[in-house]
């Protein structure tokens, strides 16, 4: 579960780790309704495509991988119930986000804290900044993501959004 803005090598490693421990993985793309924002520049459809292409490129069994967008909920207390209704059945959630872990654990959902690759290097905020400033971000993402973001000219989108004075907010 994550925003995947963009999907990077740390995310791919987590998917591999989960598939070693579980029969299937549901990759829930959160904040699906947000896009073209500084923190959420890519659409749910773009993120699905990035993830799907990366899993395929890594030769993971796509029959064991569900990639699903889910919208954020305004009532945080009912979020766990929403997840249970919006996603296929799941036994546990892998999350390194302490806030998410607290919310789900309070609802009786088992939360597993995964082992992460270097979270400083594999950090979507940092990668978006590297794209804008033409740093070598290619080493942080699967090749499929690099190709996709190049094709959609993510650099221009991110640059324009970061300089925008309209500063749209989430509603």
Automatic annotation (TrEMBL):
**Location of the protein in the cell:** Cytoplasm
Q: Which UniProt keywords apply?
A: ATP-binding, Cytoplasm, NAD, Nucleotide-binding, Nucleotidyltransferase, Pyridine nucleotide biosynthesis, Transferase
GO biological process terms, alphabetically, are:
NAD+ biosynthetic process
Q: Which domain of life is it from?
A: Archaea
**Which GO MF terms are attached to this record?**
ATP binding; nicotinamide-nucleotide adenylyltransferase activity
Q: Which reaction does it catalyse?
A: beta-nicotinamide D-ribonucleotide + ATP + H(+) = diphosphate + NAD(+)
Q: In which pathway does it act?
A: Cofactor biosynthesis; NAD(+) biosynthesis; NAD(+) from nicotinamide D-ribonucleotide: step 1/1
> Where along the sequence do coiled-coil regions lie?
none
Entry keyword Transferase: yes
**GO cellular-component term (any):** cytoplasm
Question: What is the residue range of the signal peptide feature?
Answer: none
Q: Where would I find the Cytidyltransferase-like domain in this sequence?
A: 2-128
What's the chief localization of this chain?
cytoplasm
EC number per UniProt: 2.7.7.1
Which PANTHER family does this one have? BIFUNCTIONAL NMN ADENYLYLTRANSFERASE_NUDIX HYDROLASE, PHOSPHOPANTETHEINE ADENYLYLTRANSFERASE
Of which family is this protein a member? Belongs to the archaeal NMN adenylyltransferase family.
The record ties this protein, via HAMAP family, to: NMN_adenylyltr
Q: What is this protein called?
A: Nicotinamide-nucleotide adenylyltransferase
Q: What species was this sequence derived from?
A: Marine Group I thaumarchaeote SCGC AAA799-N04
